[in-house]
Design goal:
By secondary structure, this protein is an alpha+beta fold. The protein is built from six helices and five strands; from the N terminus they run ααββαβββααα. The radius of gyration is 20 Å and the shape is globular.
């Protein structure tokens, strides 16, 4: 558990605590893979970590992880199972707080850990993963709040400077804009025409 806490705490400073935690889970639990789906909907971004070699088996493993993560987010319940191809596995929801009665409790995503070659995930391992899920859910919630505060500060900064439009790099800086940031930069490197759509007053001309 100490290694997982260290991965989360150290990664918060660099913004890579999710990747570090997944890698640590694979190493410390001797898991074949660990994955996380971010967000309260089953179409969220998925981050994978694997100790298995690449190839078709790895693709199948990732697909199985994504399907299990979607199931956990849809049902908002932990799952545990096994099959002949992927071995034992567990999927757990990531809540912003372990307090089930908290009115501010939010689903932050889901965690999947797979053990190829094992018939099942035992109770001790499942209890450990529940603790890790509580830690991760709280950390993701905290990071989300920090990102939202930074975004609010950027907006206030723009208003204080006379409503001057924010530079593109500042608009796309939050982690939540990572996918859009990649698409925008890819489009800017191309030579094709770009059509910008939006309602009047949303800043298309800037």
């Amino acid at each position: 558990m100490r290694a997982v806490v260290k991965a989360v705490a150290g990664g918060l400073a660099t913004g890579r605590f999710i990747e570090g935690t997944l890698d640590t889970l694979c190493t410390s639990m001797r898991a074949s893979s660990a994955s996380m789906m971010l967000g309260p909907k089953p179409a969220g971004r998925v981050i994978h970590s694997s100790r298995s070699p690449g190839g078709a088996s790895n693709v199948s493993q990732r697909r199985h992880a994504s399907e299990t993560l979607s199931q956990v987010i849809c049902t908002r319940k932990a799952v545990r199972g096994s099959d002949s191809q992927h071995g034992g596995y567990a999927g757990l929801p990531l809540w912003s707080t372990p307090d089930t009665g908290a009115s501010s409790r939010r689903l932050m995503g889901a965690l999947y850990v797979g053990f190829t070659g094992r018939e099942s995930v035992d109770v001790t391992a499942l209890d450990f993963l529940r603790t890790v899920a509580e830690l991760l859910g709280g950390a993701i919630s905290q990071q989300t709040s920090i990102d939202e505060s930074r975004e609010n500060l950027r907006v206030e900064k723009a208003r204080a400077s006379g409503d001057q439009p924010l530079p593109l790099d500042e608009i796309l800086a939050p982690d939540s804009m990572a996918k859009i940031r990649g698409e925008v930069h890819a489009a800017l490197r191309g030579k094709g025409a770009i059509m910008i759509l939006g309602e009047s007053g949303t800043g298309k001309t800037h």
